[in-house]
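Sequence only, no structure available. Ideas?
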Amino acid sequence: MRRLTAVGVGIGLVAAAVAAGCGGDDGAAGDALPEAPRCAIAAPARGALHVDGTRIVDDAGRTVSLRGVNAGARSKFAPYAPFDFTDDGSGAGYQAALDAYLDRAAAWGIDVLRVPVSWQALEPTPGTWDDGYLDRYVALLEGAWARGLWTIVDFHQDVYADPFCGDGFPRWTLADPGPAQRDCADWFQGYDHADVQAAFDAFWADDGGVRTAFVAMWAHVLDRVRDTAGVVGYEPINEPHGGSANAATWAATTLADFYGDMAALVAAHDPGALTFVDTTGVDGITSDTSLTRPAGDGIVLAPHSYDIGALFGGSVHPDVAGRLAPWAALGDAWGVPVLIGEMGIRVDNPEAAVHLRRHLDAMDALGLHGTWWEYSVSTELWNGEDLSIVGGDGADTVMVAELARPFVRAVDGAVDATSWDPDARRFAVTWTPAGDAPAELSLPDRLGEVRIGARGACVEVDAAARVVRVQPDAGATSVAVTIEPAR
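Reply:
I predicted one. Tokens follow.
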């Protein structure tokens, strides 16, 4: 995918392109295209994903775009799944809830889930693994892949552990843990507390062997997950924190070294898998970091991006592209792809839908991957956070209509322009083919029956896979496709 900032256009022009819908010629600016001729297209075999400079590519050499959601906040507390389920000991309740959860996600036309894994759930006492939890976790990964969704395994922590109104690390890593808490509206302020900073200080210094135990936990996860199809890679830690250390110095040294060590661990246990490196929660607000590029191959920069005013009920800032562009620029400087691991807003914010739309427009313009925070089906909110794009009963919020839009899932070539008209529900794209591998465009269920226009290619609709495959004509120097509801 073309990254505009990589060729010196600058943030202002990127923002203008987003505001204009990323339009261009050959259908992306609204040109009427003739009805696409149909043809039989052999889909490339589903293999692994790899890093090639700033691109994520598949085994066919196509540039892949990862766009999806986080299997969210409900995963942070027992029974550590992104949905409520009944448990009669047979596993049937979990399976039924899992199937409904994944069927709903696949219907949106997305292609990736970032899936939190909890160390507290996995190893509730030192050296004792909860294999039932891990089996359920792997079942989610497998079920996602059966529906065409890639997955990212994310060790998730917030404010270290649940005695601090957070999640992630086991209570036994604390000398004197209090009771679990998950009803703290100001949970994020816990990073300023001395006990939380002391816990992170001990982790980074390996005082008491906490970091050694952490590495052993990750080795256990890697050995269990590495043969699971569809797993893109692993995120060693969500929103890391430096404890009481100088934040800039710690990020440039301790954190970068940690990620290099973890990338080596991933490579040793699951060769070829990607390592997603997150920055701090504060960095996700400021769009700036002191983290230096970690050593290792298969590195993907995976920061977060939150509009702090909008997150707490205020008006959203319209320049989303301007907030994401520094991450695209840093990815270019590092020579790695960029996935925005979290973006989100309370669903009761009147601008929630347009906020999500602007993020997707910006990701199209900047060539970024991204997973929205979040997708849970739960009657209980973690710390009162109402960010899920569905309700507790699974009913869609206004956010789903924005998320469920077509995008370029895979293409052998360079995308020249895309556009999305949310009112007409019309998607348009043009690209310059680099080879003869077919492209894949997402086809969400919400579009219903569609009309597909094309120039320079024929198409095949795979309703089961929710994709439109596009085969460029022999010798075509440009391909244009439009997808819109049938009239």
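The CA atoms of residues 122 and 131 lie 7 Å apart.
Hope that gets you unstuck.
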